[in-house]
Fold these 2 entries.
Entry 1:
Amino acid sequence: MLTDTKIPFRYIIKQIRFDIARVFLVSVFFQMLKYYFSSYLPPIPVQLPTILGSAISLILAFKINQSYDRWWEARKVWGAIVNDSRSLLIQAKGFMEEDRLISETPQEVLKRIGYRQIAWCYSLGQSLRGLDPVANLQQYISAEELTYLEGHKNKPLALLALHNQELKDLRQQGVFGAYEHVQLATMLVRLCDSMGMAERINSTVFPVTYRLFIHLFIYLFLIVLSLGLVETIGLTEIPILLALASTFFLLEKTAKYLQDPFRNRPTDTPVTVISRTIEINLKQLLDEKQVPKPVAAESFYLM
Amino acid sequence: MLTDTKIPFRYIIKQIRFDIARVFLVSVFFQMLKYYFSSYLPPIPVQLPTILGSAISLILAFKINQSYDRWWEARKVWGAIVNDSRSLLIQAKGFMEEDRLISETPQEVLKRIGYRQIAWCYSLGQSLRGLDPVANLQQYISAEELTYLEGHKNKPLALLALHNQELKDLRQQGVFGAYEHVQLATMLVRLCDSMGMAERINSTVFPVTYRLFIHLFIYLFLIVLSLGLVETIGLTEIPILLALASTFFLLEKTAKYLQDPFRNRPTDTPVTVISRTIEINLKQLLDEKQVPKPVAAESFYLM
Amino acid sequence: MLTDTKIPFRYIIKQIRFDIARVFLVSVFFQMLKYYFSSYLPPIPVQLPTILGSAISLILAFKINQSYDRWWEARKVWGAIVNDSRSLLIQAKGFMEEDRLISETPQEVLKRIGYRQIAWCYSLGQSLRGLDPVANLQQYISAEELTYLEGHKNKPLALLALHNQELKDLRQQGVFGAYEHVQLATMLVRLCDSMGMAERINSTVFPVTYRLFIHLFIYLFLIVLSLGLVETIGLTEIPILLALASTFFLLEKTAKYLQDPFRNRPTDTPVTVISRTIEINLKQLLDEKQVPKPVAAESFYLM
Amino acid sequence: MLTDTKIPFRYIIKQIRFDIARVFLVSVFFQMLKYYFSSYLPPIPVQLPTILGSAISLILAFKINQSYDRWWEARKVWGAIVNDSRSLLIQAKGFMEEDRLISETPQEVLKRIGYRQIAWCYSLGQSLRGLDPVANLQQYISAEELTYLEGHKNKPLALLALHNQELKDLRQQGVFGAYEHVQLATMLVRLCDSMGMAERINSTVFPVTYRLFIHLFIYLFLIVLSLGLVETIGLTEIPILLALASTFFLLEKTAKYLQDPFRNRPTDTPVTVISRTIEINLKQLLDEKQVPKPVAAESFYLM
Amino acid sequence: MLTDTKIPFRYIIKQIRFDIARVFLVSVFFQMLKYYFSSYLPPIPVQLPTILGSAISLILAFKINQSYDRWWEARKVWGAIVNDSRSLLIQAKGFMEEDRLISETPQEVLKRIGYRQIAWCYSLGQSLRGLDPVANLQQYISAEELTYLEGHKNKPLALLALHNQELKDLRQQGVFGAYEHVQLATMLVRLCDSMGMAERINSTVFPVTYRLFIHLFIYLFLIVLSLGLVETIGLTEIPILLALASTFFLLEKTAKYLQDPFRNRPTDTPVTVISRTIEINLKQLLDEKQVPKPVAAESFYLM
């Protein structure tokens, strides 16, 4: 997530440098065309650029809105993960009949559940970004659990299965009643839903044809505009076309980045920051004294 | 679902080839009309194409947005199917009192439920696309169950009925308590909801009159524009009109394809891919060693 | 619901024939005005029609979107009715403790519930459309139940009350446990919600002032445009104004029809078709051999 | 809620009569300015009114959409109240173990609950509109309950508290089981949610600055347009400006009225009509013979 | 929340005073440029400002809509908090088996729960605004509870943990049954969800690049317009440019303020007012005689 601080100019330009280069070549080419063959070029009706312009803004507006919706939905999903992580631990604590525990203290059991939940958050975040989903998990789960994860392709799902097994064992010891057990299992369903939603956003490609059309239309628009501006021949036209085209490409690029919020980019949903917040919250609910610091912003963004 | 790779130019052109041909004929016809009868033609006020143009973009914008919503809703429905399939198996495992099972091992029962759930996903996907809904199901369900399906028109619904019967039998053996049973039945309600939502999207025709109007307006617009461009007579006008019309037809066609995401087309919701993911996830939850590979992309799309 | 087949031209024209006639009269009147009093008419600034045009598209766009939302919501409500009808029967079957039934077979009880549910769907559909809500219900419910309905103004609500009474009786016989009973009662709440939503859409008039303004603006626009086109006097202007006005009136009319999807019109939500689908599904869940055919399309629409 | 019948012209004009008067004064003033000082007035670039015009439509479109959403949400909330009122009574009837009642007949208890629910609806409607929230309640609740209400500022909330107490008493007599009691309490939560939503819509002022800007822009637009129309000096200009301005003010006013649907105005959500419908439905569910008539429309609207 | 009263002109101007100053400098600079170097300046094609203008309104419209959604969502979250606070207390009262209480009266227990809930609301509001989250809490919770809060970073979460512990203790005394306990715990989950949603809105920065682009485009637009208005040189141009630019900046600023509704600004969601309403409602539900007054508006806004 980009923060409210100054965004480096370099960062913005870097995103559209290839498009700008291509626009520059196109402008120069049509400039030369007009210079040498102006008498052969057809007159362009004035409505044409306007119509193309409105077609471009039509699809751009659509794309900006829908990509924002994806980005905001991704954020909502991770907001729900925060809430459900906290509620899972609170409910486990509230529903536990401590005197039914045989070999462990309540605190140990809750800590294992809470830590596994922290592990799940980090693991899901890493896995969505295509990074190593078991990195650093050894701090939060036992060696046997890590071994169990090895056999699974979907690590966060395997962690939910471990949660499920733990709840079942506690239910069989009578630590949770039937009704409380079902309620806690419902929290796992909610976590499973959030995981699936994030995976859906991550694996669903935004209809690519729209992107193709935007690029097509922008180039068409530039050509038509260049041919239409018969009176202004010369170097002045090139910066004008560049400025206009950059406008459209910047908007399109921003939309594209919002669309895919789990790509390990500065515009990502800040899953590491959120996971750390969850870690702090859960550790405090476990009455631990040592809690980590929130993740600090890296220059102009939070990951 | 189209993937992020290069989409063949042929694929795009193929979709609007008839429209382009028709536009070509219209342009040529009006060109000749202007050539031979220019003095009889009325002057077209300059506002007319602009007003028609804004009417077109009005309905196009509406259609693009609503078709995207249908497409995204279809994807959400299948995302919910992924989540509920996983949760069904996780909950069945978590709620099962193993020592109440008489003639079977817990593993056998869970495998039957999990495999039937995989069958349900494939069957629903096939059935939505109008393909054979029992293709390959013999890998996942028993011969008797296949026979039971034969008598039913709605195969996925029949599979849910089998799920329901199984849960009832297990409840009567005491494998699930009353409360756990109701909870699992709720998962079936959720699956039934998702199935009904996908069927709704599939069977509801987008208001056809809007589509009709778009085509009507585009042709009206072309005629008016052609008559309005008095000064540009000749071959130059034809590519201009073709380019403009293709723009609108391409947008309309893309919207039309997104609207109906279960038509066995490259732009479909990738139900086979998703069903395979579910198969992999469920088999891993069943601790099976052999899991199939994810479906690979076919050139530029995933089914 | 209009189907994908060719819509008769007559059907479309019929909807706006009065508007076209009125526009024709207005055009002719202003034509004559311009012919006889052209020197007395004020010059119309060119911005005026454009500003009125954008005001029209502003409200038209708003109306098209909101009416589509109503139409889609109505369809969703009936989709939910499909799902809940199936789930009600599936759950009743799954939760029933058959050996607690005294005088009836499980099959008889389920059939009565299933058939009453079918009756509820048909009755709700008829009642929303302002048709006879007890037409043909004698096939599905007993004579006493029909008599009970007579005393009620809201027939579908009375059918839900009968469902409720039946579930209560079964609960008292111990056929359903307390927990299962509550779960089934929740399905009735969902059906009651869907019924109320459909009634809400049906009884809520879309803000009529917007409709009034659209008509007002279209006529203002025509007058202003007619006065503004000083150079084109004569018969050519009339078809141009007619074409433009028809555009706007067609869009407005389509929106108006989508807005009210239970008016016994071809653009209705196809409640009869959906009710029939539910009948087929429920009868197959009851393992009946005889199921009716789906409702066939009437020329270009499904009811 | 305005009905589909003819809306009196007077009603519409009345809403914008002050704005029209102000616009008239502004037009006359600038007319005179142009008449006496035309040589001192600056030339206005033609882009200026267009840019202001698009800024106006930008905010108007936004306001129309958001105010419709508020209006529709208010209607949905009252739709939910209809559903939950019916469900509450249906469930109370279905869950009641009649033989546990000591001093009362089941019919008496259900009537008390049903009538109190009717009272709640009327009271909420009155309270939202700023009218007397206990008007006519003596028909539906006992004298003691009326006395209890006196001490409370939020009468509908107090009625819910009475509902809650009644359910608790019945639970303690064993008329409702633990599970059924919780289910009925959930219905109270839903009613409490609906009440809170209606209060939220009622107490949240739509961002006033947008309204301010619209008015500001319309006047700016009129001044600029008036100065820009150099060629048309005289009386013709005034009706043109008036027509244009009325357009915008009418749209803004309609939006403003939709925004606040509980202000005792003809455009209100028809809470009295809805409450009467609930009264009819509940009395019929109580098998009463005497039911009131639906509220009739007052000339052109329903309250 | 700004109220419906007159907003001071000063307040509005203050928000954009720096932008206006910058626009003034830019206008003067380009004025002088045109005065001294007019022959060297390139002719600006008339389409350019129009295209930039539509790009600006594209992003402005997007931003206004999305910021309104955030603001409305924040208000909905606090509406849900009102509902759930009331429901929590109503349910606690309804579910309590008073004779199981050993050392306290029911009234004392309910008062403690209700007051802690009031404390939670105030604390959450303060914490969202970055103010002291334990200010004045000593009126509502005991000294030990205040001490417990000290160790926690997230005070409202710690208050929920105290709620949870209280419910658990009461459950162990048998004051709540298993089922009722789970139901009350669900209310805590809902409160935890609302808290997380408000935190999400508060901590998620709206995509900053869009804001950057709007500013960029407005300045580009001003430069281009200034260069394009060749015929109007002189002091007249400056107020025109200022008026136009202020329009856009005011819209952008209003959107920015709506976006972040917990910043201790007049445009905030009025969390103090809402918390006070909750306090009044809960105290009346506890049958207290002394209830505080609603928060009064401060000149033109409510906090």
Entry 2:
Amino acid sequence: MSEQRFGAGIWHFATYVDRYATDGYGEPRTILDAIELAGQVDDLSVVDLNWPFFGGDISDDDVSKALDKAGLGVIGITPEIYTRQFSKGSFTNPDPGVRRLAHEFVTRSCDVVRKFGADYVKLWPGQDGWDYPFQVDHGTLWQHSIEGVGQLAAENPDLTFVIEYKPREPRVHMSYSSVARTLLGIEKIGLPNVGILLDFGHALFGGESPADSAQLAIDHGRLFGMDVNDNLRGWDDDMIAGTVHPIELFEFFWTLHKNNWEGVWQLDQFPFREDSVAAANLAIDFLKRVQKGLAVLDVEGLKQAQAAHDAVAAQRIAQNALFGS
Amino acid sequence: MSEQRFGAGIWHFATYVDRYATDGYGEPRTILDAIELAGQVDDLSVVDLNWPFFGGDISDDDVSKALDKAGLGVIGITPEIYTRQFSKGSFTNPDPGVRRLAHEFVTRSCDVVRKFGADYVKLWPGQDGWDYPFQVDHGTLWQHSIEGVGQLAAENPDLTFVIEYKPREPRVHMSYSSVARTLLGIEKIGLPNVGILLDFGHALFGGESPADSAQLAIDHGRLFGMDVNDNLRGWDDDMIAGTVHPIELFEFFWTLHKNNWEGVWQLDQFPFREDSVAAANLAIDFLKRVQKGLAVLDVEGLKQAQAAHDAVAAQRIAQNALFGS
Amino acid sequence: MSEQRFGAGIWHFATYVDRYATDGYGEPRTILDAIELAGQVDDLSVVDLNWPFFGGDISDDDVSKALDKAGLGVIGITPEIYTRQFSKGSFTNPDPGVRRLAHEFVTRSCDVVRKFGADYVKLWPGQDGWDYPFQVDHGTLWQHSIEGVGQLAAENPDLTFVIEYKPREPRVHMSYSSVARTLLGIEKIGLPNVGILLDFGHALFGGESPADSAQLAIDHGRLFGMDVNDNLRGWDDDMIAGTVHPIELFEFFWTLHKNNWEGVWQLDQFPFREDSVAAANLAIDFLKRVQKGLAVLDVEGLKQAQAAHDAVAAQRIAQNALFGS
Amino acid sequence: MSEQRFGAGIWHFATYVDRYATDGYGEPRTILDAIELAGQVDDLSVVDLNWPFFGGDISDDDVSKALDKAGLGVIGITPEIYTRQFSKGSFTNPDPGVRRLAHEFVTRSCDVVRKFGADYVKLWPGQDGWDYPFQVDHGTLWQHSIEGVGQLAAENPDLTFVIEYKPREPRVHMSYSSVARTLLGIEKIGLPNVGILLDFGHALFGGESPADSAQLAIDHGRLFGMDVNDNLRGWDDDMIAGTVHPIELFEFFWTLHKNNWEGVWQLDQFPFREDSVAAANLAIDFLKRVQKGLAVLDVEGLKQAQAAHDAVAAQRIAQNALFGS
């Protein structure tokens, strides 16, 4: 078995609120609590940290110590550009003052990336978009989406920025909505330090085949990160990876593998009602099934089947590798 | 113009949190604040009140006074059987202690209904369902869904209970998921004081034609309430009524009208980023367009078109009535 | 391994047309050709036959001989109540003459059921429904849906009728659209010889959990038949069973198993571009994985997990059974 | 009222088959029959013609005469690269021989474009894509998609090629699936004579906001054509324009209008069970409502509302313009 590293968004180990359970699905946790829980997962190496650190007045040092104790590194920092002040958008907010605020806010998070030696600033502008027909001027909105990210990338050439696209939620339409739309924006930005963080579930939710999305991002030289979970294709359910779509998940990792993409395999799950550690362990155990499946996959047979677009032969090979023959 | 009464869920005038904007889409409001805002809507007669009253230690008297001042009556009480303590279900919770708690909780809300002279207890068991394949024994879960409502209805024969079904959210699958499923459950309960509160948007989201859902519930003698909003058919967006699907909304009201269903036309909207009062006014203004449309609809022509399933003729008649000829 | 019998709709072995490839996805085949192909599948016992027999002037005897030669029995007869003459509906056609024609047509197919000793008449009224808002009077349409089936069941008490529901296609809304709607109709009919044929993919497409749908139909004493396939949840793709949703398929069969439901496991697949025999073999091989999984499933552990609604534990048990531990 | 020209795909006036009504939804019609019907629509100027001409051995001259008699011009030619021979793909077919055939076939259609003086060759590679996980090598498939169109555009610099994207159908995943994906491909091709034909319903079906899709294509200088229809967002229903989503249709045309996009307003409808001429008239009458709405739209008010992302104000302005104030 290879030395594949596994990671997770630290929010995996938080508790959540939604518009109904406004008192939360559990007692609030600080990011330090969450890091401690993450440390209990059997095989986790790195985490992606929301910033500012949730749960009170918590310093970088506090976090560093907690990470050390838990044996975890930092892969990315996710500035929270989707809270109340940005509820009408961060980069695309109608108010230029709030757009500046978003810029300054992410700029400050860049220093956190540097301090923790993380791989990237993760941008998930979930409030950037629109809800209603006629609500926005679409050309302007997209222009702001591009400029907002572009300015940050230009000003911080030492850092890498990844955009995590999603079709929608919390906005009814999100601006960076699909792999192709995001690549189109990145091409327009034209800088080397902007790429995609591809969320398997967001691709499924958007009607994409995640394996195809990965290949497209790779072919554009822009697949800078990824994470996995599962859903029912109609919403970003952030369920445990492997529980609904094991075969497409396998195809996704096969695509990474054959392109020699060697990054961290991350989880982006929201176990609202589940034990966080158990949910992470189940997912990672499934990812280890995937690893084993890749090791025994009949690569030559698969290539022949794919050359003929022979779905039956290709599926048989994939099933035999993943489920045993 | 008829004396149609309009209503709204009081949450229309609250602010909201979700899993991203955990600090909320605005300053928290008490139910008294919300009632005051509701009173500013141009043409609103009644509200449906969440219970317990949100925003602190607020008495029935406080609420009564606020309602009087705002000129509003109470149509229903919605016990919050979807907060943290019920996050794994209310009537279907795996823990019998929590199921009892849900029962006692709703029982207490019955007294609130009596005190305010409301029309019904509204049951929206949004946490009753399941998320994952293999998670539950489906037969037991459905049995609990039926028993939970049935016991309440049997114990409170002086009151009316309405079930508001929805396909999903916050659960990935909700137990009372569709109009037909709910009617099937109600038939099994077999009591006269249980009916449906039909949410136009939930029907759309579930792939139903809301007009058909309304007719089915009426034909079973179980349409006890309704509310409207709009969405993109893939989620319960709770957008402003009339902004996306005006024609199906018109058909829905036509169905109520031709069956002489004479209840309140209610709003169930979540204006996350909009002014609550303006959002309610826009919706009610559209509902008045609907009223005018019903007044000029070529009923004979429509019946002939429908007798022939003639979509073109029927649509032309409907468009002319709603949009002008 | 048990003596589970496998079946298939004979159309699995036909070729298809659609609105684009109007010249078909392959050379036309007669039902005799299709039977011969079905006979080449490794482990197939019975077929469901479209009636009239497609491909020309083919007698019952011709079909009997072909079946004998292929070693196949007949589980059901599917009268084609969805061709041109019924394109505006069979039981719900606006023209009473066509409704009578549908009745006579199905009545004639009853004799074919008797002649072949099949288990049931399968009713799939795919053209019964509506496309546009305002097109139909929904109460009348549903009444016709119920009366059409009810009359047939009353007149043929020696036979069993199964209704195969589907949300839509070719109609934008199909009248028998969901498991609950169909059960509601069957209860209204009130005869013992009408039940459901549950198509796994139709349930998925309708946003149902197929295991839950099966349990509901069983609890109403109405699960008279089933078939499987797969899809992406947004359409009735009729793909090869097991290729997209293996875990939910496993849960579906677990539900049948624990209820001692002992019917034929049938395929309803449309291999537009695949070799029919290979597609059937791949599906049945997956179903044999399911059988093996059921044999090793930790039933006690699962029951405990389900009693607690413990998704993680339940999934781990299910994955270990299906994929190996 | 302006001199807006209206058009339609000639298939609007054909009859259809699908996988159920294999005998068709009506008597077969030749393209000459269809042209005659198109000529009966009240206000139609141009048509898009499938090629080869359907219905038998029909010459260019036959078609010319029919068009003259009907008073119709030709806007585009649609080579049928989605029939049996291309059922596993045209530009992306696994067989290089079939890919060459597709190339030659479209090349021949170029001469038809020249002969009729049409505006463009319309490419709708509906069979180019995949159905199953693991079926294809995604990088190769996309490469073939780009090369196929690029070669044609390079070889025929005097002509314009438009790609009509769609998420799926008949393929489970179509290669040119979204506006952004198609623009990404077109940028890669890098030739001036390739653009997008934007189908309103395909955009809706793909989860796009059609107005946003139009703006994006315009901003890339690639909106070369458009057509409209309607659907329920979950499938390419090709229903009559304006019957389900009038407001988003209005926003779509507003976007064209404010960008001074001055092409033909075309219909791409499939009236399976409706009178073709009546269906076209109803749609065009709705488009004339749109024209009137654009004429009275409070443009300044809308711009202010959009500058603030004020959904309520913007919607009120739009509704007043379209439905009357």
